[in-house]
Write a structure and sequence with these properties.
Layout: E1 2-7, H1 13-22, H2 24-28, E2 32-35, H3 46-56, E3 59-64, H4 66-70, H5 72-87, E4 92-97, H6 127-142, H7 183-211, E5 215-223, E6 226-233, E7 236-246, E8 255-259, E9 271-277, E10 282-286, H8 295-299, H9 304-321
Parallel strand pairs: 1-2, 1-3, 3-4
Antiparallel strand pairs: 5-6, 6-7, 7-8, 8-9, 9-10
Helix pairs in contact: 7-9
């Protein structure tokens, strides 16, 4: 069984948790076991526990983001030691690009990164597709590590029991505790959500055009906090939108606004998403301004993907109802 070590910034803990869930089948099949610093138990020395597990790792996943590159511990200690172990042919290094950053300038920039071509996981419209690519990369790396199967028939044994293989440490999955979310957490979440929605629209427009030859599209990043999207049918504008982050200076605090006019002003709003929490995690919630928004939808706490789909439905509704 190969030991997989997660080297990551705590700012990326949510993405690390998602990746570990996707690796569950490799764990169940006995190919890997995983370790990260949240497995350190009370009474253990933090640095010693990390060093011990890093030294014992067969595969080291570098979960790369701007926060990873900025972390003295991740970059200066864990990554440097991982590179030394790789040079000694003592481990495999797999850079996993979580968020856009200048990772190609790092010492591990020469490695084949995952997802394919080093496309950041947060740039995928559906992150499950990205995580599956990471799982396949880990699976491909573990294959050479598996011992050859012994084809010799097993000898009979009397009076002895076969010791079962323990694939994982048993523990509860109910590990959530209530959190207090600071302004910094909300600001970071709204920026990450906006970036996700922008990537979602850009990729979805491209796929819409690929599947429908009569459809033209235009996607534009107006600035860091604004983008617009236009869909053309036979060269004529059929539907359009502009999406942007409204700053904390307005009445409702930071949120993400939607306008059905791609070239309008920030005062023209047809829908918006506010940042809310349930005591455990941050979500986006529709204000309910869209003409088709039901009370049930307004009450929903949406993930980033759910919010992107909600806005996308507003854009496509004129095409699907034939009101172009």
């Amino acid at each position: 069984m190969a030991t997989v070590f997660f080297s990551y910034s705590h700012r990326d803990e949510t993405l690390r948790d998602e990746l570990e869930v996707h690796l569950a089948m490799l764990k169940r099949q006995g190919f890997i076991e995983t370790w990260h610093d949240r497995r350190i138990t009370a009474g253990e020395e933090f640095d010693k526990a990390i060093s011990k597990n890093l030294e014992e790792a067969d595969i080291i996943l570098l979960l790369v983001s701007s926060d990873f590159l900025a972390s003295n511990y991740c970059y200066g200690i864990e990554m440097q030691r991982a590179m030394e172990k790789h040079e000694q042919r003592d481990c495999h290094i797999i850079p996993v690009i979580l968020r856009p950053c200048d990772w190609r300038s790092a010492p591990f920039g020469k490695f084949l990164a995952t997802p394919t071509d080093g496309k950041p996981i947060t740039k995928f419209p559906d992150k499950d597709d990205a995580f599956l690519e990471v799982v396949n990369a880990v699976k491909a790396t573990t294959t050479p590590l598996q011992p050859r199967q012994d084809t010799t028939p097993p000898s009979k044994s009397y009076g002895s029991a076969v010791k079962p293989q323990i694939l994982d440490i048993p523990r509860s999955s109910n590990l959530r505790i209530r959190k207090t979310f600071l302004d910094r957490d909300r600001d970071q979440f709204v920026e990450e959500s906006f970036e996700y929605i922008a990537n979602f629209f850009e990729n979805s427009l491209a796929e819409l055009s690929n599947r429908n030859p009569e459809v033209g599209r235009h996607f534009k990043r107006i600035d860091a906090n604004h983008f617009s999207a236009i869909v053309y049918i036979a060269g004529k504008k059929a539907t359009q939108c502009r999406i942007w982050i409204r700053g904390s200076s307005h009445l409702y605090g930071n949120d993400i606004a939607y306008s059905s006019n791609a070239s309008g002003s920030d005062n023209s709003i047809n829908e918006s998403m506010s940042i809310v929490d349930d005591g455990y995690a941050l979500f986006l919630q529709p204000l309910g301004m869209a003409f088709f928004a039901s009370q049930q939808n307004v009450k929903k706490l949406l993930s980033q993907q759910g919010a992107a789909e909600y806005f996308w439905d507003i854009l496509l509704r004129p095409l699907q109802q034939g009101s172009t």
